[in-house]
Design a protein that fits this description.
Mean pLDDT: 82
CATH class of the largest domain: Alpha Beta
CATH superfamily of the largest domain: MutM-like, N-terminal
Structural class: alpha+beta
Largest sheet: 4 strands, antiparallel
Helix content: 25-40%
Strand order of the largest sheet: 1-6-7-5
CATH topology of the largest domain: N-terminal domain of MutM-like DNA repair proteins
Bound molecules: zinc ion
Low-confidence stretches: 62-119
Order of helices and strands: HEEEHHHHEEEEEHHHHEE
Radius of gyration: 23 Å
Strand content: 15-25%
Number of domains: 2
Distance between the termini: 32 Å
């Protein structure tokens, strides 16, 4: 599953296309209508934890705001974002109807253009990408089949979304869920790869009376931290995954936080340099010191159980 470092790398790929106007859009997604992105300008990209956000504006309206340009017509079939331009009374009705954006809005219907109101921020349309287990983003190349499927066919993966830009450039999104949203609604203070990551809040969370491996995967507390980072940093901190946070010393938890940050930034750096990552414990049968590794599925009661590897010698259980 793409974790924070992977999504930050996807972000660096999509940022190269900022300022480009979508010439054509295709893809198998049913969560949005790709054709409705045609004619929009990719204005901004953001990554928060495991989510990527792309913000679009109408290229036509942006150009017409420049000094000296003619007055923008209030209705224009050539400007897709103007289709739902509203008069003042209607704007108020829409604004009174409920919150703009956020998780509630994601679940509703198709990607409606022109929901933007009068301010620049509201004119921006955001798409939110969740990458699931095998999601990816590519620039100017399609993913090719590297093995035959169960029927023996060499079928290339089907993109969820392809955005074509001028000059034959394109962005391809695979194995992701796509939602429209009002704006990126995420706190930087919980993002492990943000300078604003709040260590004090994180430390308090780690001291909860629950297994430390449950706390680490809580995206509200450690946005971007996935199962690989969890396994690796617990090994590097010599902490048993099922240790209760409240039984661990503050020094031990500070070491764990150091490892979370160092490991995540190191992984991101490797990715940006095109280097792979050698795991210490994740999916290993022996730890780096040669001890036999144990594996089990751990997760909160009624919650997702995640594969966990640990060394019983290097990571002794805390009673
Ligand atoms: Zn060991």
């Amino acid at each position: 599953m793409p974790e924070g470092p992977s999504v930050k790398m996807f972000h660096s790929v999509t940022c190269l296309f900022v300022g480009g106007v979508v010439q054509k859009a295709t893809g198998s997604t049913r969560q949005i209508c790709p054709e409705q992105l045609v004619g929009l300008k990719l204005q901004q990209c953001q990554a928060h934890g495991k989510k990527l956000y792309l913000g679009f504006t109408s290229a036509y309206r942006q150009e017409c705001k420049d000094p000296g340009m003619v007055t923008v017509p209030t209705q224009s079939v050539s400007d897709p974002a103007s289709v739902l331009i509203l008069d003042d009374s209607r704007k108020q009705q829409v604004m009174d109807a409920g919150p703009q954006g956020g998780e509630q809005e994601e679940a509703r219907g198709s990607f409606l253009l022109g929901q933007g109101l009068s301010t620049p921020q509201r004119e921006r349309k955001w798409l939110q990408f969740h990458f699931g287990m095998f999601g990816s983003v590519r620039a100017n190349e399609f993913s090719r089949a590297n093995r035959a499927n169960k029927r023996g066919n060499w079928q290339d993966p089907s993109p969820r979304l392809v955005l074509y830009f001028p000059g034959g450039q394109f962005l391809v999104f695979y194995n992701c869920r796509i939602y429209r949203c009002g704006s990126p609604a995420s706190s930087h203070t919980s993002d492990i790869l943000c300078p604003e990551f709040n260590r004090n809040l994180a430390l308090q969370a780690l001291q909860l009376a629950q297994p430390i491996c449950y706390t680490l995967l809580n995206q509200h507390l450690f946005s971007g931290l996935g199962n690989i980072i969890k396994n690796e940093v617990l090994y590097l901190s010599a902490i048993h995954p099922m240790s209760l946070g409240c039984l661990l010393s503050v020094e031990k938890l500070q070491t764990l936080l150091d490892q979370v940050i160092q490991f995540s930034y190191g992984w991101l750096d490797n990715k940006l340099k095109g280097k792979g990552l050698k795991y210490h414990i994740y999916q290993q049968t022996q730890c780096p010191k040669g001890h036999a590794v144990e594996r089990a599925e751990f997760g909160p009661p009624h919650g997702l159980q995640r594969a966990t590897w640990w060394c019983p010698v290097c990571q002794p259980a805390v009673q």
